[in-house]
Specification:
single chain, two-stranded antiparallel sheet, flat, 4 strands, mainly alpha, disordered C terminus, 278 residues, 11 helices
Amino acid sequence: MSEAGRAALAAFVAGLSVGFAGIRVSARLIRAGVRWWPGNVRLGGLHVHHVVFGVVLMAAAGVAGLVVPDGAGRVALAAAFGAGTGLVLDEFALILHLEDVYWTARGRVSLDAVCVALALAARPLLGPGLVGGQLPYVLGWLPLAVVTVLKGKYWTGLAGVFCPPLLLLGAARLSRPGAPWARRCYRARPDKRIRAERRERTLRAPAMAAKVRAQEWLAGRHDLPDLTPAPAAAPAHAPAHARAAAHVTTPPAVPRPRAAEVRGPWRGGLTRQETYPC
């Protein structure tokens, strides 16, 4: 990688970090009801999500980067592009679910998306590896990375980008119970399936709980109730069309308000303002 490319990538990573951290601080101040903070951006009665500003910033910086020559200008545009990416990925859950699930359990996927983006973008800055390494080096580890992902060990696969020997561990150990590898290879091996389910309960579940606690300590608690009703389960003996219909979510009979004030035992006895999709 050239020095100009390395400088631009470093600026992108810095912009992504600052953009994500800044918007999370803003979201937490809004949720806490801090009076001196400006709050949400509204046009009339429409709540403009910050993903909109992120898309505009990414588009402007990306187009400008096509015409600006190498130098300080391109580095600044890379930082702006990174900041826009941080705004977009902070609402990745909204894009994925097409619902405002920011402070619900489903909103945690945005934190995962930011972690993955930061890891993949920062890895080439640390030297050769699976990202940014020589082709024979990459092809040597790629089969192990594929096996690790097929076994449902996505975080091990991501860590393998930084430390490829971890892919040996991920590929050699048991698959997660619901992963494609387990569905394909453990169908006739009930002993392995039982061991995999036991490890899921005793090892992975506590590890994921610790990850969630760390994420929420940094980014805020995702504890609002999910307003989307869970699909009703159809009996196993029901016809195929009945089982398919059971997975269709019925919209609520009463339309949700544009905004609602949710009161609760928040820090300092303040209230929080929760905005639903407009």
